[in-house]
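Minutes, structural biology subgroup

Action item carried over from last meeting: produce the structure token record for Glycosyltransferase family 2 protein (candidate division WOR-3 bacterium). EB confirmed the sequence was re-checked against the source entry. Recorded below for completeness.
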Amino acid sequence: MKTISLILVNYNTTKYLLRLLSFLIKKDYELIVIDNNSDEKLPIEYFKKNHILLIRLKKNYGYAKAINYGLKYAQGNLIGILNPDIALRDNEIEELAYHLEKNPDWGCIAPLFVNEKGEILPSARTFPKISHIFFGARSLLTKIFKNNPYSAQFLNWDKYEKKEPITVDAVIGTLILFKKAVLQTCGNFDENFFLFAEDLDICKRIWEKNWKVILFPKIKVTHYLGKARIKNLIKAEKERFKSFYYFFKKYSQFNFFLPFLFSFGAALLYFQLIFLNDTKEKIF
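Output recorded by EB:
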């Protein structure tokens, strides 16, 4: 049995998926690909030849549910979830696994993400408060007030220059390595999250079971900034607001104000996207 199982969810990112798999097949991983009913054709023989388990879903069930399909088959003691649009160049997974295994109180670990130019991307978050609705990475208010404390706190900008592993509320779901025993205790991903905030939710449940969530800034991974999302940015933003709305309903005490606050936040963002033509690629 392989020690590390890696689950990749594909939705119209086949070019990036195959490029990443060409690196991963050289390693000793169990590889599981869940295709969320992509429009693109997949080279079935490639998966068979390289002993990659491919599960093709009949519809796009969303990211969390696709991950749960993969978890049914994962045999490793460590389970990683990866976006296809990342680049691994060395032993990043092995380094993360080494540190995760030697610390019994760590539940999951993730690297620092950078873009193609090597610029640091948001890689961790605090658990959001109501004020954070308006201060995410894409927020108009974040762009206007670049050094405001709400955005800095939510996106953890002060922690990315560190080298040692650090505890954070939540890491970004672009690449996370979990202990299988932790996921078995905390439960599967919440399938009410279609595309966003499932990473916040699983990290919150990990903390609630008294394990730590770790960001390791010394280990850097390139992320190509949501190539699947950018094709329909407004639809993606709608899904993001729906997911965060559900997160606040699940955990917040201020449910009475949520419809108004999220409606106002969504209006600000749509104004920004449509009238200011703000479609620059971001991770959020």
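Discussion: Residues 78 and 179 are 5 Å apart (CA to CA).
Next step: EB to file the record with the rest of the batch.
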